[in-house]
Design goal:
Elements: E1 5-10, E2 16-17, E3 33-38, E4 66-67, H1 72-78, E5 82-83, E6 87-92, H2 98-110, E7 116-120, H3 125-134, E8 143-146, H4 150-158, E9 165-169, H5 186-203, E10 206-211, H6 224-228, E11 231-237, E12 243-251, E13 259-265, E14 268-271, H7 275-280, E15 290-297, E16 300-312, E17 320-323, H8 327-341, E18 348-354, H9 366-378, E19 386-388, E20 391-392, E21 398-399, H10 404-413, E22 418-422, H11 429-432, E23 437-441, H12 444-462
Parallel strand pairs: 6-10, 6-11, 7-8, 7-9, 9-10, 15-19, 17-18, 19-22, 22-23
Antiparallel strand pairs: 1-2, 1-3, 4-5, 11-12, 12-13, 13-14, 15-16, 16-18, 20-21
Helix pairs in contact: 4-5, 8-12, 9-12
C-alpha cells in the first residue's frame, strides 16, 4: 500500500518541491514554503471510461436564472445578480468593508423571503451580530453560524430548504478532512474551495467565498482557486478616503472589468449611482494644474480630476511623487513633454495625484496628465468646461482611444462643453449629439503651445 509523502508548498504561489528552501523559485518570496502531507495516489481509471454524447454548436441558449441582491451597484458588477449554482470569490484588504457589504447583501436578500446562510470562520457570532445591529439589520432573517469544518458546513446547508445564498467568511479559515495540512495552507484552501464549489453546483445555491489578499493585492492562496470559481470580485479603496470600489476581474456570467462604487458611511456602505458628480464635487476650476479626465472603469464612464504640481527643485535629483497614477507612465509623459513640447522639467519637482483615492491606469489618462502638468508649470488654469482623453506616444503624437461615445455622453451630462482628444479619433454622429464639441490635437506640442498662449494672455491682463 502506498504511503503518504511530504511535499513543500509555497503558500504564495502554490509551487511544490521535494525539499525546503528559504526562497521560492516561482514567485521569489522568502519564508513562504511549508511542509505538507499528501495522501497516496488513487488508482488509475484508464480503460474504465464511459462514452458520452457529443452535440453541435447550434441550439438555443437559455439565460441563467439570477438572484438579485437588492443592491444595484452589487448587481451591476455581477451582471444582474447572483447566478444559481455559481461560486464567487470576493477579495479585499482587511478592514476595507467586505463583511459589511456582504451583511447588507444578505439582509436585503433575506428580507425578500430567500433563505440566506452566513458562515463566519474568523469572527464569533456576537461580533457579527454587533455589526448587524450597528447597520440596523439585526431584524433581518439571516441564518448565522461560526464554523470552520467544511464537511459540517455542507451538511448544515444541505438540510432543510435550499439556501439561495451561502457566504463563507473566509476561505483561508476553512478546514477539510480530506487534507492533512493546517488551515490556510495551499492544500487546505484548494480542498475547501473544491468541496464548497461542489455544494454550489449540486444544490443550486449561490456561494460566496471571502479571501484575504497578499501585500501585492492578490487573493492569497493558489491561483487555481480563481480558476475554479465563476466570478472573482475585488473590493478596493483607500483607508484615508470614504469611497470603495467593487471590481470584477473575472465573470463567466457577465462583463469583466465592471465596477460598482460605494461610499462608507456611519450606517454602512451607501451606493453611489453617479460617481462622476461625487468625485468632481468641490473642485477648484480656477486653480492651475487640474484637468478633468473622461475615463472608463470597465464598461462605465467616469470623470476624474487629475491634479499636478510642478515646482522648482532645490535638490540635485528632483522628486517625482505619484498617487493613483503609474509612475513609469508619468516618467514617459515628462520625457515626451521635454522632447516634443519644449518644456524644461529636469530642474522641477513633479507631483501628480488622482483626486478621490481612485486610480487612473488606462492610457487615455495621458493627455489629461500632460495638460495638468503644463497648466501647473505655466500657471494658466485650464477651461473649466473641458475634459481630456487620449494616449500620448513617444513621438509626441496624440493617439485615439476606445469608448469615445460613452466618454462624451458622460461629460455632456455633467455640463462639460469641450473635449480635447486625438485628431484621429473617430466620432459617430450619435456621439456628436451629446452636446460636447471636439477639440482635436495631432501632437502634444500643439497642446503645450495653446496652454502657453493662454498663460501669456493671463499675464498680460494682470500687467
Amino acid at each position: 500500500m502506498a504511503k503518504a509523502r511530504s511535499v513543500f508548498v509555497c503558500q504564495n504561489c502554490g509551487q511544490t518541491g521535494n525539499r525546503w528552501q528559504g526562497r521560492c523559485d516561482g514567485c521569489g518570496e522568502w519564508n513562504t514554503i511549508v511542509e505538507e502531507t499528501q495522501g497516496p495516489p488513487t488508482a488509475s481509471r484508464a480503460g474504465r471510461g464511459r462514452a458520452f454524447e457529443l452535440e453541435g454548436l447550434a441550439g438555443g441558449a437559455e439565460a441563467a436564472p439570477r438572484i438579485s441582491t437588492g443592491i444595484d451597484e452589487f448587481d451591476r458588477v455581477l451582471g444582474g445578480g447572483f447566478v444559481q449554482g455559481s461560486a464567487t470569490l470576493l477579495g479585499g484588504e482587511p478592514g476595507i468593508g467586505k463583511s459589511t457589504l456582504l451583511i447588507q447583501a444578505c439582509a436585503a436578500l433575506a428580507q425578500r423571503g430567500a433563505r440566506v446562510i452566513y458562515i463566519s470562520g474568523e469572527e464569533a457570532m456576537a461580533q457579527v451580530r454587533l455589526r448587524a445591529a450597528r447597520l440596523a439589520l439585526a431584524a433581518a432573517p439571516v441564518e448565522l453560524a461560526s464554523a470552520t469544518q467544511v464537511e459540517d458546513i455542507i451538511a448544515t446547508c444541505s438540510a432543510g430548504k435550499r439556501p439561495a445564498l451561502i457566504v463563507v467568511d473566509s476561505i483561508q479559515t476553512m478546514h477539510s478532512e480530506t487534507a492533512d495540512s493546517a488551515p490556510g495552507t495551499v492544500t487546505q484552501v484548494r480542498a475547501s474551495a473544491q468541496a464548497l464549489l461542489r455544494l454550489a453546483k449540486t444544490s443550486g445555491s449561490a456561494v460566496i467565498l471571502v479571501g484575504h489578499v497578499t501585500k501585492d493585492g492578490l487573493v492569497a492562496g493558489p491561483r487555481v482557486v480563481e480558476h475554479m470559481v465563476d466570478a472573482v470580485l475585488s473590493f478596493e479603496g483607500d483607508g484615508a478616503h470614504h469611497f470603495r470600489m467593487l471590481r470584477a476581474s473575472k465573470n463567466r456570467f457577465g462583463a469583466t472589468g465592471e465596477i460598482g462604487v460605494f461610499e462608507m458611511t456611519g450606517q454602512g456602505l451607501a451606493e453611489v449611482p453617479n460617481p462622476s458628480a461625487l468625485f468632481l464635487a468641490g473642485r477648484d476650476a480656477a486653480a492651475p494644474g487640474a484637468a478633468v479626465l473622461a475615463g472608463m472603469e470597465g464598461q462605465r464612464p467616469m470623470l476624474l480630476e487629475i491634479q499636478a504640481l510642478v515646482a522648482p527643485s532645490a535638490l540635485g535629483t528632483p522628486r517625482r511623487a505619484v498617487v493613483g497614477f503609474d509612475p513609469a507612465r508619468l516618467s514617459m509623459i515628462l520625457a515626451v513633454l521635454e522632447a516634443h513640447g519644449g518644456l524644461k522639467l529636469g530642474t522641477h519637482d513633479v507631483y501628480l495625484n488622482v483626486a478621490g483615492g481612485l486610480r487612473a491606469d488606462e492610457p487615455a489618462a495621458d493627455l489629461a496628465a500632460a495638460a495638468a502638468l503644463v497648466s501647473s508649470l505655466t500657471g494658466a488654469p485650464l477651461p473649466p468646461t473641458q475634459v481630456y482623453f487620449g494616449e500620448i506616444g513617444l513621438s509626441g503624437a496624440v493617439r485615439p482611444v476606445i469608448h469615445c461615445g460613452p466618454r462624451l455622453k458622460e461629460a455632456g451630462k455633467l455640463g462639460f462643453r469641450h473635449a480635447v482628444l486625438s485628431a484621429l479619433q473617430q466620432i459617430n454622429e450619435d456621439d456628436r449629439n451629446a452636446g460636447v464639441a471636439a477639440r482635436p490635437f495631432a501632437d502634444v506640442g500643439a497642446l503645450v503651445a495653446e496652454i502657453a498662449r493662454a498663460a501669456a494672455r493671463r499675464r498680460g491682463r494682470n500687467d
